[in-house]
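EI: anyone free to look at a 352-residue chain?
SC: sure, send it
EI:
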Amino acid sequence: MAIQRRKKGKHSNFGEVVDLFCGVGALSHGLKCAGLKIVAGYDTDARCRYAFEKNNDATFYTRDVAKLTAKEIKNHFSGNAPSILAGCAPCQPFSTYKQRYDEDPSWDLVAKFAKLAVKANPDFVTMENVPALMKYKNGIVFKQFCNSLRKAGYQVEWTVAKCEEFGIPQKRRRLVVIASKAGNLKPLRPSHKNFVSVCKAIGKLPQLEAGESSSKDPLHIAAFLSNLNLKRIKASTPGGTWRDWPKGLRSPCHRRVTGKTYSGVYARMTWDDPSPTMTTQCYGYGNGRFGHPEQNRAISLREAAIFQSFPRRYEFLPVNEKISFTEVGRWIGNAVPVKLAKAIGKTIIKAC
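SC: here you go
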């Protein structure tokens, strides 16, 4: 199939994107920043509509991708620009935090994504997921995904991206697959030689106390800490562990032999390194190395978003709407780092 080249003109674009499992639009936003036009996003979480549409100038559809048809996808493409199907199938089934894969049927969504891609036949397909997908069921799911695209005439390139090599202030590993009908595709390449530190990313944000929010940015809000956890974080040093605390502050589970290896919780980040991997509970001091390097609190939701390379003013909720740490934390933790998505978009554009 011949790829439609970009038309010249003020309102031209390098390609049109339909984003499956779009969430609040992180993948879409990175692709948009690269120069692609987002035409639609699909997700089961209707609460993501505001953020997706507000930041990406595209229509959000509350829909289960498992019930989506190829015809619906194809109807979004104008035919005047390269067509791109993008998505990040839910990665929880393949996460190293999850031990019983077979209890979660959502891994089938990877296969469903491949089937939709083959039937919709866009010019490009891209999927982002956790590297553990390559090992799940001895790699069968991942191999079938790639092979189904190859059999449909796509050149398939994949890489395990180190996010800090793409200007993202976070240590995170993501599996990126890009497939092209054009045959001109190059593998995704790092864009930054030097990493972005925690200090450079959030060092100039207004100071907060635990439980406090910024008057200028509602998302710059830190979770409340109990008196015990306040004592713990005051006893914590950047890069240190709970082993540095007086014994009276240690959790009972850490005093047991089975808990002595979990040193990466109740800990502060360091100013000079990228942040640890953001999770859906990254706003909680006890959930990982999510303590602020200097202030006596966990990182704020805005800081977590910045570590995921969302733009500083990315809007997640309408003004004055109450913020739920659980909800927004899930959106942020599950997001594709925006700058990684931008690099994916640039790779696609070069192949056009």
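EI: Confidence is low (pLDDT under 50) at residues 4-12, 93-105.
SC: 👍
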